[in-house]
């Protein structure tokens, strides 16, 4: 199904070239940039190039956009509660630890801290909940279906804001050559994503009890933290370079390859033991796994943790079909279903960062290759098939036209202990990729950053 057949408008090559030049200049001068791949980079990592972006904002149904936004505070609170529910974490994660070494290492840290006592009751969540649009026969019943909920290293909050600003600039300065009725400034929603995450970190810094002046930021690898970090034996303050660390924000740590040696794991333990406010805690990372998403979708489970019936109903309406692949009777049934109708599904391991999923026809060979116990480290999910639409993307200076699909992300900011201190919506992200591409990552080279044009 193609949404908006008249989109993007047909422009002359001259007009397209003007947009291309303006987009590149604007991106380079406003920091809508990424570091180039090594083969294109100058020495000492000293160059940048424009980020992969769409030339036009992509149409997105207004009603469903706001539906996704409305879900965010409810999801924020749910994941906070789950991260503090020992019984839930134990029940869901323990089975996975037997067949997934990465989750096992995280879980060991979680248990150790549980036993020693938690030094910092406050946690900071900077999340992103991702959705694909689902359009049934009756298009007026379109809704968003959740792809996943990210609790660690949610990316692109600043680039998503900047891409929205780029589209606003192109529209204001060229009117896109008056080429489409849809392209109106009022249809480009404002996006807080540039400021929401830093504000969350600043608030956590304040709650730590830090003096109220400029916040000093240091950036370290996990290996450096292992080498340079220590704990104050009395207060459990995390000390690096003689400075007390108020907030530890992870831009790494979401995948096994980011922990190549024992040093990285020792650093994780050190941080977790400390009094610094962590974004995220290991518990938050564990409840952000796909396994937890699948368990929440089982009958009655979500409703146990979201006690407001209206809220629970709203969240559940955003769940695609999710199935265990373990040795339970549901798991056995799901394996059978996936072997018989693989084209309906995607199979997912407990991994982040893109490029890890197994799609449709590749599922049966994978299921047959791994042992029955190894299946527990995966979940099965209905393949969501959003409508495609055309757009033109700009990547490494070149324009490429094509049939595209978009994935909407909604950012969330949460700070809490026993109480809720901050629970906010933190802006949005739209990523767009070629219809034929399974995976959606921008960093992994599959997708571009876009912005929604509400219709
Ligand atoms: P990761 O944590 O690695 O980003 P995701 O669950 O987001 O894992 O999957 C990666 C990509 O795969 C998504 O961005 C989306 O493009 C695609 N994908 C994931 N789940 C589905 C699904 N149920 N239906 C269709 N595409 C999906
Ligand atoms: Mg993820
Ligand atoms: Mg994802």
UniProtKB/TrEMBL annotation:
GO molecular function, one term: magnesium ion binding
EC number: 6.3.2.3
One GO CC term on file: cytosol
UniProt pathway: Sulfur metabolism; glutathione biosynthesis; glutathione from L-cysteine and L-glutamate: step 2/2
Binding, Mg(2+): 148, 150, 352
Record-annotated Glutathione synthase substrate-binding domain positions: 212-287
Cofactor: Mg(2+)
UniProt xrefs under InterPro entries: Glutathione_synthase, Glutathione_synthase_a-hlx, Glutathione_synthase_C_euk, Glutathione_synthase_N_euk, GSH-S_sub-bd_sf, GSH_synth_subst-bd, PreATP-grasp_dom_sf
Positions bound to substrate: 128, 431
Domain of life: Eukaryota
Name this polypeptide is given: Glutathione synthetase
Cofactor note: Binds 1 Mg(2+) ion per subunit.
Residues binding ATP: 148, 290, 348-357, 359, 381-384, 407, 433, 439
Gene3D superfamilies (alphabetical): 3.30.1490.50, 3.30.1490.80, ATP-grasp fold, B domain, Glutathione synthase, substrate-binding domain superfamily, eukaryotic, Glutathione Synthetase, Chain A, domain 3
Keyword Ligase carried by entry: yes
Membrane-spanning parts: none
Known catalytic reactions: gamma-L-glutamyl-L-cysteine + glycine + ATP = glutathione + ADP + phosphate + H(+)
Lineage of the organism: Eukaryota, Fungi, Fungi incertae sedis, Mucoromycota, Glomeromycotina
Family per record: Belongs to the eukaryotic GSH synthase family.
Species in which this protein is naturally found: Funneliformis mosseae (Endomycorrhizal fungus)
Keywords assigned by UniProt, alphabetized: ATP-binding, Glutathione biosynthesis, Ligase, Magnesium, Metal-binding, Nucleotide-binding
């Amino acid at each position: 199904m193609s949404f908006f057949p008249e989109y993007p408008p047909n422009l002359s090559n001259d007009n397209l070239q003007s947009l291309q030049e303006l987009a590149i200049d604007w991106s380079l001068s406003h920091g809508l940039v990424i570091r180039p791949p090594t083969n294109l980079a100058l020495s000492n990592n000293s160059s940048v190039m424009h980020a992969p972006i769409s030339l036009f904002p992509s149409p997105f149904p207004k009603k469903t956009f706001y539906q996704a936004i409305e879900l965010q505070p409810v999801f924020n609170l749910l994941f906070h509660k789950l991260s503090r529910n020992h019984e839930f974490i134990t029940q869901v994660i323990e089975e996975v630890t037997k067949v997934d070494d990465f989750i096992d290492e995280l879980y060991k840290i979680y248990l150790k801290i549980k036993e020693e006592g938690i030094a910092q009751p406050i946690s900071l969540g900077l999340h992103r909940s991702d959705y694909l649009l689902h359009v049934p026969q009756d298009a007026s019943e379109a809704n968003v279906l959740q792809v996943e909920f990210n609790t660690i290293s949610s990316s692109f909050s600043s680039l998503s804001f900047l891409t929205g600003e780029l589209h606003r600039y192109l529209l204001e300065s060229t009117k896109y050559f008056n080429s489409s009725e849809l392209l109106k400034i009022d249809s480009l929603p404002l996006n807080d994503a540039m400021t929401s995450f830093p504000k969350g970190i600043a608030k956590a810094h304040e709650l730590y009890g830090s003096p109220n002046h400029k916040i000093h930021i240091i950036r370290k690898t996990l290996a450096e933290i292992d080498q340079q970090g220590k704990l104050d034996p009395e207060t459990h303050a995390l000390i690096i370079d003689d400075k007390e660390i108020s907030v530890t924000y992870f831009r790494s740590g979401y995948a096994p390859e980011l922990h190549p040696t024992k040093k990285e794991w020792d650093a994780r333990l050190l941080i977790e033991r400390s009094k610094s406010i962590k974004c995220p805690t290991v518990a938050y990372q564990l409840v952000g796994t796909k396994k937890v998403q699948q368990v929440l979708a089982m009958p009655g489970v979500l409703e146990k943790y979201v006690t407001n019936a209206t809220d629970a109903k709203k969240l559940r309406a955003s769940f695609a079909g999710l199935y265990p692949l373990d040795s339970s009777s549901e798991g056995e049934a799901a394996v059978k279903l996936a072997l018989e109708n693989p084209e309906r599904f995607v199979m997912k391991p407990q991994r982040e960062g893109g490029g890890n999923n197994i799609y449709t026809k590749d599922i049966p060979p994978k299921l047959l290759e791994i042992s029955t116990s190894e299946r527990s480290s995966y979940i099965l999910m209905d393949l969501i098939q959003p409508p495609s639409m055309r757009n033109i993307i700009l990547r490494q200076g070149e324009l490429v036209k094509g049939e595209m699909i978009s994935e909407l992300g909604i950012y969330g900011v949460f700070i809490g202990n026993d109480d809720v201190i901050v629970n906010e919506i933190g802006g949005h992200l739209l990523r767009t990729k070629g219809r034929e591409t399974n995976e959606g990552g921008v960093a992994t080279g599959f997708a571009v950053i876009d912005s929604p044009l509400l219709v």
